[in-house]
Amino acid sequence: MNKLTKGAIAASAALVLLLAGGGTLAYWNDTADLDGANITAGNLQLTQSSAA
After folding, report:
1. Coiled-coil segments, which residues (predicted)?
2. What is the structure's pLDDT at 41?
């Protein structure tokens, strides 16, 4: 493979990763208004108990 082909493949891969990352960011930053809904945030604490 020559340098131009390798560069094109690398640029294509970078573009795919950039678009995929942008889609993931949009998914996690989505907002919606809900009427009558309550959202509670807090900490979940898990403990390990011994098996009897």
Report:
1. none
2. 77
Residues of the chain with pLDDT under 50: none
DSSP string, the chain: --HHHHHHHHHHHHHHHHHHHHHHHHHHT-----TT----------------
Q: Which tokens go with 19?
A: 């678009």
pLDDT score for 7: 93
pLDDT, position 12: 95
For 15-49, letters b (16+ CB in 10 Å) and e give eeeeeeeeeeeeeeeeeeeeeeeeeeeeeeeeeee
